[in-house]
Amino acid sequence: MNEATSIRTKAALATDFDIIGAREAYLKAFRSRDADALGALFAPAAIRVNPGTPDAIGRTEIRDVMARHFETFGNQSIADTYRFIQDRCMIAVWTWHATQDADYLGVPASGKQVGVMGASVFWFGEDGKIIKECTYWDPYGVLKQLGAGAEPGREIPPHATAPEIFVAGRTDAEAANIRHLRTYHSYLLGGQLQPWLDYMTDDIAWDDQMAPGLAVGKKHSASDFAMLRSAFGDPEIKSVNVWGNNQFVIHQGIFTARHKGELMGIPASNRFVIVDNIDVISFTPDGKIDKGWSFGNSIEMGYQLGVGAKQAQ
Asked: CATH 3.40.30.10: does it fit domain 6-167?
């Protein structure tokens, strides 16, 4: 293990399975653009989910999807910022840099440098092979960096020198934070602005990777609340998986709503949207949210709202 890597935990890592080594093997294959080596890390019947594109089912399909990605982007580097571990599951928050070497979503090869932040969930079998991966990142962020978006792209995020590693302890505090998040969601969905804001610190910093940039402070959060309530009717949040890990809660979910009002220049369509996303939320000891990150695919949301085309694998 890299000496700069820290592990914060109240529980021990499993002794029968090197989950950190498995992640390092994945990163090594990815950096070397070796689709065969990457595919070999998956179980024969594994599933790789990249919301907004068709699922890749089986080791061969996963290998082929990654080979196409490696043909499109060169000079790739990837590094984890955070790793959250619970049993045979790891959530990795990462940054990725590359150059565009081939056509990408209608944009001709440019050689431009691109880079985004994303998050992946991995489930491992008893033999250490990946049985499922769910990866969340925003391709529209790349398109904007290539000059194909309606507004400028984000700055390329810097790589961490080493990841911070957190292992779930199944503590009362972790369970309490999960309850706090459920209450926070209920206030959002119920249109209760002040109780929702009360669950935040005054200097909350939320970094939605589908948004133009970092949102800091309750005033910005209140503006986002108003936008959500005016744009969407009957919103619901379905929790697919929720992990409490030290001061963090990781929420993998599906947001559904009816598009009843203007959203960032897109007129009301009355369409029903289904958005897969994952949030990483940090809580203070007194149960307030002080920072968080959201990951999803804004191209997929746009398609559901009648803007743009469906992505291929």
From this structure: no
Q: Write down the pTM of the prediction.
A: 0.93
Structure tokens, 83: 């790793």
Q: Please state the rounded mean pLDDT for residues 105-127.
A: 96
**Burial (CB count within 10 angstroms: exposed 0-12, middle 13-18, buried 19+), residue 308:** middle
| CATH level 2 (architecture), domain 172-304 | Roll (3.10)
Q: What is the pLDDT of residue 304?
A: 85
Residue 263, amino acid: L
Q: Where are the domains of the chain?
A: 6-167, 172-304
Find all residues with CB under 8 Å of 15, minimum gap 6, and list them.
none
Q: Which residues contact 11 (CB under 8 A, 6 or more apart)?
A: 167, 168, 169, 170
Give Cβ neighbours of residue 250 (< 8 Å, ≥ 6 apart): 84, 91, 241, 242, 243, 278, 279, 280, 281
Cβ neighbourhood burial of 156 (10 Å; 0-12, 13-18, 19+): middle
Task: Residue 79: count other Cβ atoms within 10 Å of its Cβ.
Answer: 18
Beta strands in the chain (DSSP E): 6-9, 42-49, 56-57, 73-86, 89-100, 113-124, 130-136, 164-167, 200-208, 215-216, 232-245, 248-259, 272-283, 289-295
Among candidates 102, 85, 81, which has minimal Cα distance to 93?
A: 81
How far apart are the C-alpha atoms of 71 and 74, rounded to whole Å?
Answer: 7
N- to C-terminal Cα separation, the chain: 34
Tell me the mean pLDDT in the region 166-172: 95
Same fold, 6-167 and 172-304: yes
User: Strand pairing of 272-283 and 248-259?
Assistant: antiparallel
Alpha carbons 295 and 210: distance in angstroms, whole number: 7
